[in-house]
Amino acid sequence: MYLSVIPQQRSKKNRMYIRESYRVNGVQKKRIIEDLGFVEDYLEIYDDPVAHFREIAKQRTAKKNYLNEEVEIKVRIHEFLDKQKIEKADFSNRKNLGYIVISYFYHKLRLNQFINSNKRSTDVKFNMNKVFQMLVYSRIINPDSKLGTYNNKELFFESMDFDIQHVYRTMDYLFQWRSNLIRHLNNQMQKQFKRDTTLMYYDVTNYYFEIDDSKDMKQRGVSKEHRPNPIVQLGLFMDDMGIPVSYRLFEGNTNDCLTLQPNMQTIKDDLQIKDIVVIADKGMMTGDNRGNILINHNGYVISHTIRGAESEMKAWVKKQDDYTYLEVPEKEQRYEKIKKGRCPTESNSTPTVKMKSRFYPTKINVKNKDTGKITKVLINERQVVYYSQKFADKAKKDREDALNKAQNFVNSGSTSVMNNYGSNKYVKSDIITPDGEILSKTKSIKTYFNQEKLEEDESLDGYYVICTNVIGLEPGEKPMKYKSKFLRDNYFKLNKPVSDIDIIEMYRGLWEIEETFKITKSFLNFRPVFHNKKERIEAHFLSCFVSLVITRLIEQSVESKWSTLQIIESLQKASGSEFEDNIYLFDYYDDILEEFDKKLGTIFKRKYMTRGDLKYIIGKMKKH
Predict the structure, then answer these.
(1) What is the CATH number of domain 181-391+463-522?
(2) Which of the ends of the chain has fewer CB neighbours closer than 10 A, N or C?
(3) Half-sphere exposure of 143 (CA within 13 A, CB side)
(4) Sheet containing 470-471: which strands, arranged edge to edge?
């Protein structure tokens, strides 16, 4: 067998055929064994397609001569796979095809154009786009260290012709291009997916290092995974679709609440994002942060601790005569919208909640950056209190262990000081004489259960207060010219009605960012971090950030019908083995892959595919 390359006059391309010579009645003839398509179409896969397929032809001839007989394998080339379940994908001697879903969004976001465009200003000769593709694809399909990723670069049906030093050199350039790349992503999200950055969710997590050396960013701090290793803090902004917008790294010993203002400045300077509503939990919203949000004419939605609140707020929360009862269908308890419903006395069939709100002037403590002096500043605020019996039951159950420890300590008659966070507040001690007189110095100690404290805590179970400066259009009010407007009385007005339920729904969206952090740690393996230099650390998290954006887009493309883990496992299992020259056998298909076939036009259903089939579908996923 041999390779034949025929120029085509119309297309100006070169078509390749594998041909074979044979004899009939002593007359030599030639026949086409396979039409491989155009040379130009393989340039993305092989550095030299002609040399590659010439070698394939030689191998086929050698194999045929060795067997000294013609072997014909007949398969139904368009046979479909049955849906099946396998326990674990085996990547040994296999190639993954599931990555083409990642490739679809990689190219839809024009990441290839960004890398290639920026490469032109360098003296780099190797294919940087291929390096970045490998980093992004592998982070989702088979996360590993950079060296481990490089060693498995042949996992995909594409040529990855570069060396390990090219990987690290690409990372150095990624560090330089960080701001531009995040800006490019945001622009593409706005253009391709109609991103709206009015609501911006914010939270902080941290990732640990494998290197036990506290230096620069790597500092020991409060690890959210309770590890002793050095960590780095990551503050993340996410839009209301659950797609990450921007992030920033901080030293591991940085307090969470100190990361918000620098991150807000970053999205304002780098992404020109302004007029936003920042949604964060109560630990993030200090007086300084709230003051900064108002100074920059933005909005906020935060939760407020009730047990640590002033007596006036507690009294308002406990006052029952002005609550409105609402109904939440059980299946919608966590994620779906709250709906107005009946008073719980009318029906016990579905869980109910109640709520009320008020506009109230509030004092916040703001620190002067120059003098360090703390000043109380009066601001206007909208406060929404929300009660759920489900949350109240959970609070009661969570308190049981602390109550048992406190009661056991009192029953023991111990005169020592109880040192157990969560339980000691339910133990009260008096210093008394044998006659019962309270003294200023210890003579004997009597401990007893603090029933008053328990009753106070129980009276606040299930209540949550959300504080905000966000308001909306009044009934009958004409729409504004802009999406939002910051008013003189420090309220942030949206160009639509904003009910109390809307405020609660805004805040409840925070679960998405918590879920996102779980994805980064459980499935994409952002940590442990193996890098030491700041530039490489930044580049590592940039490639991870891009992988995270694509992962979330993949979820949304199938309407979040399956979990991240289920989707990633299906893409991992969409792998095939070459069982005969030019033909690959695929052995896995499920509902998720079927959905991608429908939504994106993939062909995971095919049981057999030739190299031509693979070339076609790989190329199809890159065309947008």
Answers:
(1) 3.90.350
(2) C
(3) 21
(4) 470-471, 492-494, 484-486
Q: Do residues 615 and 41 lie in contact, with contact meaning Cβ atoms separated by under 8 Å?
A: yes
pLDDT band, residue 30 (cuts 50/70/90): confident
With vertex at residue 113, the alpha carbon angle to CA 110 and CA 118, rounded to the nearest 5 degrees, is 130
Angle between helix 99-108 and 128-141 (nearest 10)? 130
Residue 174, SS3 per DSSP? helix
Contact predicate 314/503, CB 8 Å: no
Can you tell me the mean pLDDT for 349-369?
Answer: 85
Q: What are the distances in angstroms from CA 530 to CA 145, 148, 345?
A: 7, 11, 59
Of 289-293, 392-396, 486-490, the one with minimum mean pLDDT is: 392-396
Q: How far apart are the first and last CA of the chain?
A: 38
What DSSP state is assigned to residue 581?
Answer: T
Which pairs from 420-423 meet CB under 8 Å and 24+ separation? none
Q: Which residues contact 83 (CB under 8 A, 6 or more apart)?
A: 589, 590, 591, 594
Residue 346: per-residue pLDDT: 38
φ/ψ of 429, rounded to 5, equals -125, 140
Q: Tokens standing for 247?
A: 């992030």
pLDDT tens digits along 72-119: 666 676 778 777 655 444 445 689 999 999 999 999 999 999 999 999
Q: How far is CA 444 from CA 419, 437, 440, in A?
A: 19, 11, 11
Rounded Cα–Cα distance for residues 314 and 157 (Å): 63
Closest CA to 550 of 104, 229, 216, 174: 104
Sheet holding 463-468, edge to edge: 244-251, 231-238, 199-208, 277-280, 299-304, 463-468, 374-388, 352-367, 324-327, 339-340
- The pLDDT confidence band at residue 71, using thresholds 50, 70 and 90, is very low
Q: How far apart are CA 130 and CA 159, in angstroms?
A: 8
What local confidence, expressed as pLDDT, does residue 69 receive?
46
The residue among 497, 495, 502 whose CA lies nearest residue 468 is 502
User: Measuring CA to CA, which residue among 507, 485, 465 is closest to residue 202?
Assistant: 507
Question: How many of the other CB atoms lie within 10 Å of CB of 308?
Answer: 9
| 3-class secondary-structure state, position 317 | helix
Residue 58 to residues 51, 52, 577: CA-CA distances in angstroms? 11, 10, 21
Token pair, residue 284, equals 């993030």
Domain ranges within the chain, ordered by starting residue: 1-72, 95-180+534-561, 181-391+463-522
The mean per-residue pLDDT over the stretch 421-438 comes to 70
pLDDT tens by residue, 584-600: 999 999 999 999 999 99
Place of tokens 């230099």: 533
Cβ-Cβ contacts under 8 Å for 238 (sequence gap 6 or more): 200, 201, 202, 244, 245, 512, 513, 516
For residue 229, give the nearest of 237, 219, 239 by alpha carbon.
219
Dihedrals phi, psi of 406, to nearest 5 degrees: -65, -45
Token pair 């339920």 in the structure block, residue: 501
- Beta partners for 340? 326
